[in-house]
Design brief:
This protein is α/β, with parallel strands linked by helices and about 425 residues long. The chain has nine helices and 16 strands. Strand 5 (about 205-210), helix 8 (about 220-225) and strand 6 (about 225-230) form a beta-alpha-beta unit. Helix 4 packs across helix 9. The chain is globular. The two termini are about 40 Å apart.
Length: about 425
């Protein structure tokens, strides 16, 4: 959070000679330079132009950029039996949930002066893309933090009448962001119960998640046909989500976090350090849970596509490198599915032995590529001694001779692996 420390104490600190006037002058000069740069001494109100602000903020260029960013931020978490993309000429589509037609929540917790009237909701986005003969039905079902199930009957009736259900659930926009914490990762209110009632209809269900943190959705993952992680996508939320749902855009986003199976798994992250008793389900005296796997529900870097990518032929340019050499790492990627698509190829490294404990994996490189159906491409990365450095006992950046694993794959858990050695000739902390 922000601090009032300087406002309350700085004058007194200067009087006590604990902060010099020269330090104050230096700080003020930084601000004045920026004001000079932007011409604010000649025209102090030059940027206070409401007409220009309105024109620029909602210009077509800005809206196009907002849509592009939103589409690329979406992560496909599940797609059983290739339910997605949906056909645009379905007879009836039910859009259900407290976030289905929300205009405020898609703006997210850092919207500042964002205008909800500029937001395209999920219902609105879907209506834009379907054919005229398709009927889009809407039922809210409940509010985000509702404790009442009074509107469940209407939601269930709406779902029953449809060919497919788009269930839009998640968090309020101000549940995340600065100083907003929760003690649980469960869906707020009665949204979980709503999901269970919709599931009982037997209709195929696509879950749209709108949230600012990982949620505990193991039941939803186990029972629902498809799951789309949409986060808070801004003014073009509805358009972006609709383009993904109907295949105008093939999702390519990857998770920047790990999703736990339950809040009890926290902290859970891909680059953790090994314990003294690494997990082994066959050995009772190792680190593990009695009631669930050690692994997350979705690992860091996870994200599906409407097509499939096959990794093969991982190659290293050499079994070892010195301080002055680079290691070339290459892998073949082939689009084996039925759609053109993008893939984020990820490279991780593990230092097997170190003078201080080292993570089991560290992301070092990634590259996003586009492949047409049946197209194949070799993707290459380079690693140097600098990429293998870490903070040593003396709090300096060092590297050490030894063996390393290199992993390349579609996420932090689904990888191919190889090994190489770093043979040091110079102390990296002195370079």
């Amino acid at each position: 959070m922000e601090s009032r420390s300087f406002i309350a104490n700085l004058a007194e600190l200067v009087k006590e000679k604990k902060v010099s006037e020269e330090t104050i002058d230096l700080s003020v000069k930084r601000i004045l330079r920026i004001k000079f740069k932007f011409g604010l001494f000649d025209k102090p109100f030059k940027y206070c132009n409401k007409e220009r602000e309105t024109k620029n903020i909602m210009s077509q260029e800005v809206q196009n950029a907002a849509l592009e960013v939103a589409k690329r931020s979406i992560v496909l978490l599940k797609n059983s039996n290739s339910l997605l993309p949906l056909k645009k000429d379905l007879s009836k589509i039910a859009v259900i949930g407290p976030l289905a037609d929300s205009k405020q929540d898609p703006l997210g917790p850092w919207a500042a002066v964002g205008n909800p009237n500029d937001v395209v909701t999920i219902v609105e986005g879907i209506k834009k893309l379907v054919t005229p003969k398709t009927e889009v039905l809407f039922s809210k079902g409940c509010d985000i933090e509702d404790t009442s199930t009074d509107n469940f009957d209407d939601a269930v009736k709406t779902a029953t009448e449809s060919d497919v259900v788009i269930l839009c659930i998640g968090e309020r926009e101000n549940m995340t962001g600065e100083a907003n914490n929760r003690s649980t990762l469960d869906l707020p209110g009665v949204q979980q119960k709503l999901a269970e009632e919709i599931y009982k209809t037997g209709k195929p269900v696509v879950v749209i998640l709108m949230n600012g943190r990982p949620l505990s959705i193991e039941w939803i993952d186990r029972n629902m046909s498809a799951i789309v992680e949409a986060w808070f996508l801004g003014i073009k939320s509805g358009d972006a989500i609709a383009e993904v749902l109907f295949g105008d855009y093939n999702p390519s986003g990857k998770l920047p976090v790990s999703f736990p199976r339950t809040v009890g798994q926290i902290p859970i992250y891909y680059n953790h350090k090994n314990t003294g008793r690494p997990g082994n389900e066959r050995n009772r005296f190792t680190s593990k849970y009695l009631d669930l796997p050690l692994t997350p529900l979705y690992p860091f870097g996870f994200g599906l596509s409407y097509t499939n990518f096959e990794y093969s032929d991982l190659k290293l340019s050499s079994p070892e490198i010195s301080d002055e050499q680079e290691l070339a790492v290459s892998v073949n990627i082939k689009n084996t599915g039925n759609f053109d698509g993008e893939e984020v190829v990820q490279l991780y490294v593990q230092d097997l032995v170190g003078s201080v404990t080292r993570p089991v994996k560290e992301l070092k490189r990634f590259k996003k590529i586009f492949l047409k159906k049946d197209e194949e491409q070799e993707v290459s990365f380079k690693i140097s001694e600098k990429d293998l450095r870490f903070t040593g006992h003396e709090m300096t950046s060092i590297s050490e001779s030894g063996e390393f694993k290199v992993y390349v794959g579609t996420n932090s858990a689904d990888v191919m692996e190889s090994r190489f050695k770093l043979v040091k000739t110079i102390s990296s902390s002195l370079k």
